[in-house]
Amino acid sequence: MNFVVPRRWRPWLISFGLILLNAYICRELFFAEFLNNLDSNEGAFTAIARFYREHPFERWYPWFNAGMPIENAYQPLFPALAALLSGITGLKPVRSVHLLLALVYCFGPVSLFWFVWDWSKSWVMSAAAALGYSLLSPAELFIPALRLNNAGFWGPLRLYNIVHYAEDPHNLALTLLPMALFFLRRAIVSRTPGSIIGAIVLSASVVATNAFGGIDLAIGGLALMLALGGGFWTIAGIGLASYFWLSPWLPPSLINLIRHDQWGEGGQLQRTWLTPLVAIACFILIVWLTRRLTSTIERFAIYFAYWLCLIPIGFFAYKITLVPQGGRYQIEMELAVCLLIGLLFARMVRHTPKWAGYALFAVALVLSVRQTVHFRRFARGLIVPIDITKTIEYKTCAWLDRNLKGQRAMVSGDTEYVCNIVSDNPQLSSGHEPSAPNWMQRVAVYGIYTGTPDGKADAEISTHWLKAFATQAITVPGPKSHEFYHPVVHPERFDGVLPVLWHEEDDTIYAVPQRSHSLARVVPKQAIVSRAPLHGLDIDPLRPFVSALENSDLPLAEVQWDGLSRGVIRAAMQPSQVVSLAINHAPGWRAKVVGRDVPVTKDPLGLIVIAPGCDGPCEIRVEYGVTLEAWLCRVASALVTLGMCLLLVPGISAAVRKEPLRQP
């Protein structure tokens, strides 16, 4: 008796098979703690996950870049999910990060499968696309620079990006993207409440995961509209609602900050309109040439693949980029091309004799087995656990945590990524630079790292910056250090200038001697830095300020923190004196003296200045609170949530569904 799988079970069985296949390839990732990828920024994502796990209700993040609002640390969804997973399972944050990544890797092809299946109802097309996404790497075929060592054209680039480069949130965004498009398409063609709510939630989730996800979603939405021949207002409404729902975590001020600092990775912002115009003209031509295609999913796949292939190929082949950091869209290219592969395979099966179709399946099966073995072998050598306690990165951070607990340090190189996984020391650097709120903090870090070309006066320049930012220690990897980046030029510059606190292998922690370990310093009002330094070597504006910090005639201030975003500063002050609080200024900071609001301003270094006007013992209560922008974003998010709830009301649901778009 022949066993025939019921049609309704097929997508579920295929999904289960895809999960098992990808889990087999990356199985070490499910159980790994620290991996041999400390030079990646995975440690930074893990530190943010640890923050969410231990401080879920704090809005100020003090560990990176001299402090910032938590939304500036990174888009929240990936570290928040890792923290949630850590809370549910009891795993350490680093373990939960890798478990989440393993799930992301396994469910990426499943997400693509369901998007294609829902549109086409072809299990051949959807399974071929998902299997290709699991076992092929077309970006390596078209871009030789991406080919992995000894892996030919078909190395597991998606897994390599996750493990080696720690493109963790980026891959989560790509796993969510097909499901966002799934609901967006359904919202256009049927306008059911479930599809609209799903589209809002999934679209917001993609953007809340990674900035690249926003570009991907925009391209996908454009491709959907052109393929379906309508849906502009549906897409626009869902896009607006998604942003409002997400806006507390991505306020307009943060978008503006990121917008100013996204061009890089070697690609150049186009100084002429010629290249974008040519790209748009070619796209219009493709849309015109494909207008007679009756298959809407084929039209979508072509439009989607055009942009997601053009961006990375243009970057690697011609060093041009139409979007920021175009070289990192290689994994988007994988997704788009594998969708095309699925469509092509389904066409071949549909238009060939039955025996030829069986032959195609046999060839695909043999190649799949070969690729599974190949990918598994590569993954085994890629996912390499390490004993973190034996690394110089861990030893450095553990020493800081034990001996300089709670004090700010400048942790250099890849050690900065690991540091806040194991310590609470706030750092002068670390983190995600495009969303760091204070440009002068970045100037300071760059000036300390690079110094002058000949190395002269480097120690003086560095110590002025370190003292201005209340940094109590600096870690310096020597030429023979096992640290990866060796960012400190002329590391010997501090020998004999700063006291050595600790030295092991070729790594040193130097003290930065100061009168106080506090982030609050009392100085005369006229000693505050009068202008922003022109660059990292311009320390003339810093000299009067640093001199005042070292003046023993001035009173010392101490800070007692209640949590991470509020505290009390105590000092004996005169009316002509102010408090320089070595924390990045943000509009939400407020200060009170005996219930009276006192001015909180930003100095040219981007740090907080408080003028309490005290004469004698002074107690200043500081707190990072909610700004008007934050309140407006919260109200907008709440209104969207209310709107999604109202969509479930029958009368409103019927009005929304009126005259939905039907597919040709």
Question: What can you see in these coordinates?
Answer:
There is one protein chain. It is built from 24 helices and 15 strands. By secondary structure, the protein is α+β, with helices and mostly antiparallel strands. It folds into 3 domains: 109-382, no CATH class; 388-511; 520-625, no CATH class. Strands 8-9-15-11-12 form a 5-stranded antiparallel sheet, with no helix packed on it. The longest helix has 29 residues, at 354-382. The protein is globular, with a radius of gyration of 28 Å.
Summarize this structure briefly:
This protein is of the alpha+beta class and 664 residues long.
List keywords for this structure.
664 residues; alpha+beta; 3 domains; 5-stranded antiparallel sheet; 4-stranded mixed sheet; 24 helices; 15 strands; 52% helix; globular
What would the principal axes of the Cα set say about the shape? globular
- Whole-Å distance between the termini? 40 Å
The proportion of residues forming helix, as a percent range, comes to 40-55%
The overall pLDDT average reads 91
How many helices does DSSP assign?
24
Number of domains: 3
Q: Structural class, from helix and strand content?
A: alpha+beta
**Uncertain residue segments:** 263-267
Q: Main β-sheet: number of strands, strand sense, barrel status?
A: 5 strands, antiparallel
Number of separate strands: 15
Roughly how many Å is the radius of gyration?
28 Å
The proportion of strand residues reads 5-15%
Strand numbers in spatial order across the main sheet: 8-9-15-11-12
